[in-house]
Amino acid sequence: MEHSPIKRHPSLQPLSRHHFHGLVIAQNLLRVGTDPDGLAIMDVQADLAEFWSSGGRDHFREEEEILLPVYSRYASLDRPEVSEMLLEHIRIRSLVDQIVTRQVESVAVMHELGALLRDHIRKEERVIFPLIEAALPTDELERLETQFADPSPTARKSFHRP
Fold first, then answer.
1. How confident is the model over 91-106, as pLDDT tens digits?
2. Three-state SS for 91?
């Protein structure tokens, strides 16, 4: 099933651009160990570290410290989708830390993070962001336009390895 591009309010587009880069990282994490001539663990660890330090970590903070507090002024945070999002942030942070610091060099853990990151991003794009866009008045969405960092030039790197 093919999904057409989601029309996102301009204020949330920087977060969606981060998501695009996160999906590339997720895909690479899922590809590790699936092909003998494929991606090396160390290459994927390095790409993940660069992605995380150049905006991935801050992306979670922006959602937790800016986006959700504004949303809470107009709608209840007591929703399973929001709770799941926050719990997934914690799990993703933990897995990223284990992989980036090389505490774990397990293909299974990389695949776990890849699947979690992919599914998390899809949930935010398809469920969380539409909830927020529906709840916030246009003037509030417009005030958010300067609040989110666009991916840095480093984060814009394709992170795609042949």
1. 999 999 999 998 877 8
2. helix
Residues composing the chain = 162
Predicted structure pTM score: 0.87
Identify whether the C-beta of residue 118 lies closer than 8 Å to the C-beta of residue 94: no
| Burial of 120 per CB tally in 10 Å (0-12, 13-18, 19+) | buried
Answer whether residue 2 shows pLDDT above 80.
no
Q: Which two tokens stand for residue 151?
A: 């991916």
Using alpha carbons only, give the angle 141, 147, 52 rounded to the nearest 5 degrees. Answer: 125
CATH of the domain at 99: 1.20.120
- Is the Cα dihedral 120, 121, 123, 128 positive or negative? positive
Instruction: Provide the domain count of the chain.
Output: 1
Helix H or strand E segment including 99: helix 80-100
Question: Cβ(147)–Cβ(66) under 8 Å?
Answer: yes
- From the centroid of its chain, how far is CA 45? 16
What is the domain extent for residue 28? 11-146
Query: Does 162 reside within a domain?
Result: no
In-domain check, residue 153: no
